Amino acid sequence: MICRLLMTGILLGVLQLIAGASSAQNDLDARLAAADPATGEKVFRACKACHTIDEGGKNRVGPNLWGIIGADVAASKDYANYSKALRDLGGSWTMERLDEFLADPRKFVKGTRMTFTGVSEAAARADLIAYLNASGPTPTSFGSGQFAPNEQDSTTAPTELFGVLVPGAGAEETYYNCTACHSERIVAQQGLSRDNWAELLDWMVEEQGMSELDQQTKAVILDYLSKNYGEDRPNFTN
Q1: Which residues neighbour 70 within 8 Å (Cβ) at sequence distance 6 or greater?
Q2: Nearest to residue 99, comparing CAs of 205, 184, 193, 24?
């Protein structure tokens, strides 16, 4: 009798695990079917400080991500700086794995060198995965859209993706380039002149390994920071 009860309990536990996995898969399938690679490209801007995604692109702090969907984990022949934790993970980058990883990289791969905090919004992760999927030799189709952008205007990323930063021209560029390595709250707590912001950006590149910004993007970011987080700190965030 006791053995039968134990077996019943074990069976129920297994069924619950299967049901949970099936539910998570169905949720991801639904999100991917509605995903927009054009919006995902904007989400990817948070990754561009450390990664390129064009075919044959150079490695930066992290490896080039062309064709990452379905690729073996930590297996780029041209990149030698993978963490031991990532190498030990093994397997391949399925969309399910990427969804979990992108939600919280340091939780999914304990010991990873990635400082990126992740993409908490589930729909934004799906958009990002759709963009990564489109940036490869054999993209997979999702639902009936087959990578057709949503009918809504996707020229501007949703403002909620910019965290605590004040909306305005330059918020998008500032958010995506800064949050690759740290929270946007660190930016919002500062109050510097344009020259001091410029000096800080140069220091981040020279001493902290940040990828150098092109002059146009740098100018947009400096305009935004000096206007919204200048010495008078008009938008100071605790």
Answers
A1: 92, 93, 94, 136, 138
A2: 24
Given a cut of 90, whether residue 104 has pLDDT beyond it is yes
Q: What is the CATH number assigned to the segment(s) 156-238?
A: 1.10.760.10
Phi first, then psi: what are they for 137, rounded to 5°?
-75, -30
In contact, 152 and 61? CB cutoff 8 Å: no
Query: Do 29-141 and 156-238 share a fold?
Result: yes
How far is 127 from 218, CA to CA, in rounded Å?
Answer: 26
Instruction: Please indicate, yes or no, whether the overall pTM of this predicted structure exceeds 0.90.
Output: no
Delimit the domains of the chain by residue range: 29-141, 156-238
Beta bridge mates, 72? 92
Question: In a 3-state reduction of DSSP, which class is residue 72?
Answer: strand
The answer to whether 125 and 148 have CB atoms below 8 angstroms apart is no
Closest CA to 74 of 96, 48, 92: 92
Q: What is the pLDDT of residues 49-79, one digit of tens each?
A: 788 999 999 998 899 999 999 999 999 989 9
How confident is the model over 76-101, as pLDDT tens digits? 989 999 999 999 999 999 999 999 99
Q: Facing residues of 92 across strands?
A: 72
Which CATH superfamily, name and number, covers 29-141? Cytochrome c-like domain (1.10.760.10)
- At 16, which amino acid appears? Q
Per DSSP, the three-state class of 218 is helix
Are 201 and 213 in contact by the 8 Å Cβ rule? The answer is yes
CB atoms within 10 A of CB 188: 21
Instruction: Please tell me the distance from the alpha carbon of residue 128 to that of residue 236, in angstroms, as a whole number.
Output: 30
